[in-house]
Write a sequence for this structure.
């Protein structure tokens, strides 16, 4: 770049180019909406609706937000108050996530809404709402609802979704207004990070956390110590991303419930994230790893042969790792800290890459976004829309060729998919020089896959018949 990139100049440019699709990220922390268990993509929508502006939220704006939240965004411990209002005959209007289940039994055939934040289940839902918003049957949706007490019980009579409208062509066109440094800084700010708090290599690792959103069936393992924000992004990016943190994980939860026929999380979400896998309780671990091996290999879900479907879901596993005094991993191979059944080489081989989160600085107060970025609801939807853009996949397929005496096909497939995702993130408009494609797409892709390959090479002699180092032909 001929000019030095500054936060002030970038803020001004992002606001000018993206207009109402941009938001000052300083407003969210000062709004105190995080106390209401509201993800960023909902909170920023609220802020722009109630108190649009720049800079931290003012005391006057904060009062307006709190007044609205007290009325329409009840806290979890206020569910009894809400139920009492319904009992008194009030029509209650609230903002909440809604999921819909289908009940098909001999005694009942109906649709029921699950309002978990409000402590309400089996809520009758008016005809037509599910047909108009089918995502209620998949991952659920956030929206403003109206509830009332009827002869059939509590009923959801109105639903107004909170959602962005994404025009991917506009998103791509606006990329052309930015240099690569500016665009990378904008992506990081939109993720909730302060790009000026990280060096260039750390920025690339942070951007790699977005790869499972922009590519179908891109499966990652991130290893990092506590405090590097592994789960921060996934909690706040999009309702089609599901973070599992704590509790039991069963084959029915992940794949399909054979008793009811209801598909699990891997069929209903775009990205499923298993947070702190060392602390999760896995039921029937051998059945889980067996099902995951098939899914990671071919994108198909099944359980016992009773049901089968294809799914584009990407799986992300987050795990803590111990470091020595020089901030290097203590154990070798790296996967030794995973549950034993997840150390199986046939399973690890199907992961596209390992993200070295230990190379990213621990988050501090200055690590979070302090400038103008894209609104989380628009940003997350744009990333997921990039999954359908195959031009980057075609480029990676033709431009990347591994070299060596004996190559391993899964390495080549993984490198191409990772590089394609990095191009979609950094060059969505398709304009990239061979030098930038190699530097910012191919090299990081090889690094992430090489970490998988090193684990396989150490754990299983079968893999040692192939080249130890992944190398590629110059572009």
């Amino acid at each position: 770049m001929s000019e030095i990139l500054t936060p002030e100049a970038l803020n001004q440019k992002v606001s000018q180019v993206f207009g109402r699709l941009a938001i000052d990220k300083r407003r969210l922390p000062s709004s105190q909406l995080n106390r209401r268990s509201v993800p960023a993509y909902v909170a920023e929508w609220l802020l722009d609706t109630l108190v649009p502006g720049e800079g931290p939220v003012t005391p006057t704006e904060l009062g307006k937000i709190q007044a609205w939240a007290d009325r329409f965004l009840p806290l979890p411990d206020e569910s009894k108050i809400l139920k009492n209002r319904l009992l008194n005959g009030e029509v209650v209007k609230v903002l909440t996530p809604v999921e819909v289940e289908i009940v098909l039994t001999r005694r009942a055939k109906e649709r029921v809404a699950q309002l978990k934040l409000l402590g309400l289940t089996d809520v009758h839902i008016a005809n037509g709402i599910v047909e108009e918003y089918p995502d209620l049957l998949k991952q659920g949706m956030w929206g403003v609802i109206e509830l009332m007490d009827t002869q059939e019980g509590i009923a959801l009579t109105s639903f107004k979704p909170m959602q962005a409208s994404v025009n991917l062509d506009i998103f791509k066109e606006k990329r052309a207004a930015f240099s690569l440094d500016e665009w990378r800084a904008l992506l990081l700010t939109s993720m909730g990070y302060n790009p000026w708090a990280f060096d260039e290599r750390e920025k690339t690792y942070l951007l790699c956390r977005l790869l499972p959103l922009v590519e179908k069936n891109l499966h990652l393992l991130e290893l990092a110590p506590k405090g590097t924000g592994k789960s921060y992004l996934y909690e706040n990016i999009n309702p089609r991303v599901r973070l599992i943190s704590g509790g039991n994980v069963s084959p029915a939860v992940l794949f399909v419930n054979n008793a009811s026929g209801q598909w699990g999380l891997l069929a209903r979400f775009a990205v499923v994230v298993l947070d702190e896998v060392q602390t999760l309780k896995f039921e029937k671990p051998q059945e889980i790893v067996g099902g995951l091996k098939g899914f990671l290999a071919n994108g198909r879900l099944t359980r016992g042969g009773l049901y089968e479907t294809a799914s584009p879901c990407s799986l992300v596993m987050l795990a803590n790792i111990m470091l020595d005094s020089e901030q290097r991993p203590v154990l070798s191979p790296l996967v030794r800290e995973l549950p034993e059944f997840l150390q199986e080489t046939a399973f690890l081989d199907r992961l596209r890459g390992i993200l070295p989160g230990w190379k990213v600085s621990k988050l501090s107060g200055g690590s979070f976004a302090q400038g103008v970025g894209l609104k989380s609801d628009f940003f997350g939807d744009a990333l997921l829309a990039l999954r359908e853009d195959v031009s980057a996949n075609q480029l990676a397929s033709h431009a990347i060729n591994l070299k060596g005496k004996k190559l391993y096909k899964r390495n080549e497939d993984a490198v191409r998919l990772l590089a394609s995702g990095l191009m979609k993130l950094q060059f969505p408009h398709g304009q990239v020089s061979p030098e930038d494609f190699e530097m910012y797409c191919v090299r990081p892709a090889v690094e992430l896959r090489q970490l998988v390959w090193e684990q396989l090479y150490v754990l299983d002699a079968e893999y040692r018949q192939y080249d130890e180092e992944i190398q590629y032909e110059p572009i």
